[in-house]
């Protein structure tokens, strides 16, 4: 299918929320990891989200070019072409963008999409993330207001982060501690600033102990009930139905989470869960195995000529893609989205 239209993306998110499942949002940084993600979603029979970070966008532009906009435009064009061959809907998203990179990443991409929409074309991406976790909440929401207006004009959904995700991703340090837990007051401030859809649709990454990276069991204290409390605070504030879930929630830093924690988060309104660290490992592990098992073929040992069939990048690349695709299927199963497509 073609890349999801804005209307199809909205339909995907609505279906997830109504039926208590969530989409894995798979970070990629190359054509190989993109193809692996696409195959994984297709194997799972699931719609999904594929995203790039600031570092991924730089890498896609070329290691010496390092231009996030160039990499993003190239990624979106390639994805739009190859996704046609898969029987599922795929939305394209840009991941964490801190304040100091907005002018070199999200704002120019919003402008490109606005121009495309004015010409009657689809936006380049279906959603963008503004990561305001490193600035005070008032400033975070002020910038979010500005970006939400631009996103609405370009028929794009904005993702915001209210709170701090611990650990590190693309140079953004979150640390650890009580600041990793969003309060009901933070949730109310978000709704007062951005509304509940009337000013443009947005996804909200509320933090409940999330940490980027991999940590041993017991080192990360997830409290999914934080999400429930945030939803209930807004329901009470706005006088909504008791079972309403006004926020479309995003789960960041989910590597190593238990099945129970993931299920509870989805029940409380999570419709998107970022998956990066686990799929990076799933991609790289088969490559390591290939190199160890075929070292005398991939290396020209003791003056020999090696074995072209083993050092051909396609040989180990296919194994890497298969490993990552299998991990995407697993993510879909954990999030209950396997077999779910809006057609």
TrEMBL record:
<keyword id="KW-0456">Lyase</keyword>
<feature type="binding site">
    <location>
        <position position="131"/>
    </location>
    <ligand>
        <name>Zn(2+) 2</name>
    </ligand>
</feature>
<keyword id="KW-0479">Metal-binding</keyword>
<feature type="binding site">
    <location>
        <position position="161"/>
    </location>
    <ligand>
        <name>Zn(2+) 2</name>
    </ligand>
</feature>
<comment type="pathway">
    <text>Carbohydrate degradation; glycolysis; D-glyceraldehyde 3-phosphate and glycerone phosphate from D-glucose: step 4/4.</text>
</comment>
<feature type="binding site">
    <location>
        <position position="96"/>
    </location>
    <ligand>
        <name>Zn(2+) 1</name>
    </ligand>
</feature>
<feature type="active site" description="Proton donor">
    <location>
        <position position="95"/>
    </location>
</feature>
<dbReference type="GO" id="GO:0008270">
    <property type="term" value="F:zinc ion binding"/>
</dbReference>
<dbReference type="GO" id="GO:0005829">
    <property type="term" value="C:cytosol"/>
</dbReference>
<feature type="binding site">
    <location>
        <position position="213"/>
    </location>
    <ligand>
        <name>dihydroxyacetone phosphate</name>
    </ligand>
</feature>
<feature type="binding site">
    <location>
        <position position="212"/>
    </location>
    <ligand>
        <name>Zn(2+) 1</name>
    </ligand>
</feature>
<dbReference type="Pfam" id="PF01116">
    <property type="entry name" value="F_bP_aldolase"/>
</dbReference>
<comment type="similarity">
    <text>Belongs to the class II fructose-bisphosphate aldolase family.</text>
</comment>
<keyword id="KW-0862">Zinc</keyword>
<feature type="binding site">
    <location>
        <begin position="274"/>
        <end position="277"/>
    </location>
    <ligand>
        <name>dihydroxyacetone phosphate</name>
    </ligand>
</feature>
<dbReference type="GO" id="GO:0006096">
    <property type="term" value="P:glycolytic process"/>
</dbReference>
<dbReference type="InterPro" id="IPR006411">
    <property type="entry name" value="Fruct_bisP_bact"/>
</dbReference>
<feature type="binding site">
    <location>
        <begin position="253"/>
        <end position="255"/>
    </location>
    <ligand>
        <name>dihydroxyacetone phosphate</name>
    </ligand>
</feature>
<keyword id="KW-0324">Glycolysis</keyword>
<dbReference type="GO" id="GO:0004332">
    <property type="term" value="F:fructose-bisphosphate aldolase activity"/>
</dbReference>
<dbReference type="InterPro" id="IPR000771">
    <property type="entry name" value="FBA_II"/>
</dbReference>
<comment type="function">
    <text>Catalyzes the aldol condensation of dihydroxyacetone phosphate (DHAP or glycerone-phosphate) with glyceraldehyde 3-phosphate (G3P) to form fructose 1,6-bisphosphate (FBP) in gluconeogenesis and the reverse reaction in glycolysis.</text>
</comment>
<protein>
    <recommendedName>
        <fullName>Fructose-bisphosphate aldolase</fullName>
        <ecNumber>4.1.2.13</ecNumber>
    </recommendedName>
</protein>
<dbReference type="InterPro" id="IPR013785">
    <property type="entry name" value="Aldolase_TIM"/>
</dbReference>
<feature type="binding site">
    <location>
        <position position="252"/>
    </location>
    <ligand>
        <name>Zn(2+) 1</name>
    </ligand>
</feature>
């Amino acid at each position: 299918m073609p890349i999801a239209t804005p209307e199809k993306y909205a339909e995907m998110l609505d279906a997830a929320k109504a039926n208590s499942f969530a989409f894995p949002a798979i970070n990629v940084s190359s054509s190989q990891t993109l193809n692996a993600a696409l195959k994984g979603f297709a194997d799972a029979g699931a719609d999904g989200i594929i995203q790039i970070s600031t570092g991924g966008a730089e890498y896609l532009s070329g290691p010496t070019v390092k231009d996030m906009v160039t990499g993003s435009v190239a990624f979106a064009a390639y994805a739009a072409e190859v996704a046609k061959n898969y029987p599922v809907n795929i939305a394209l998203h840009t991941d964490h963008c801190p304040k100091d990179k907005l002018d070199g990443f999200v704002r120019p991409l919003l402008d490109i999409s606005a121009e495309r929409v004015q010409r009657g074309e689809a936006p380049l991406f279906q959603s963008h993330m503004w990561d305001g976790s490193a600035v005070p909440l008032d400033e975070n929401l002020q910038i979010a207001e500005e970006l939400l207006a631009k996103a609405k004009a370009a028929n794009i959904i904005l993702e915001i982060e209210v709170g701090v995700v611990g650990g590190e991703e693309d140079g953004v340090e979150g640390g650890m501690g009580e600041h990793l837990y969003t309060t009901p007051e933070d949730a109310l401030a978000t709704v007062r600033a951005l509304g509940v859809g009337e000013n443009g649709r947005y996804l909200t990454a509320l933090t409940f102990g999330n940490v980027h990276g991999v940590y041993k069991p017991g080192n990360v204290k997830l409290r999914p009930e934080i999400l429930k409390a945030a939803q209930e605070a807004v329901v009470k504030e706005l006088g909504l139905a008791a079972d309403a879930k006004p926020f479309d929630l995003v789960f960041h830093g989910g590597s190593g989470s238990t099945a129970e924690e993931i299920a509870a988060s989805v029940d409380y309104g999570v419709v998107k869960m970022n998956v990066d660290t686990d799929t990076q490992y799933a991609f790289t592990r088969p490559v390591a195995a290939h190199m160890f098992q075929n070292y005398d073929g991939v290396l020209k040992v003791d003056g020999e000529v090696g074995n072209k069939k083993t050092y051909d990048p396609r040989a180990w690349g296919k194994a890497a893609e298969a490993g990552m695709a299998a991990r995407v299927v697993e993510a879909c199963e954990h999030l209950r989205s396997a077999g779910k497509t809006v057609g």
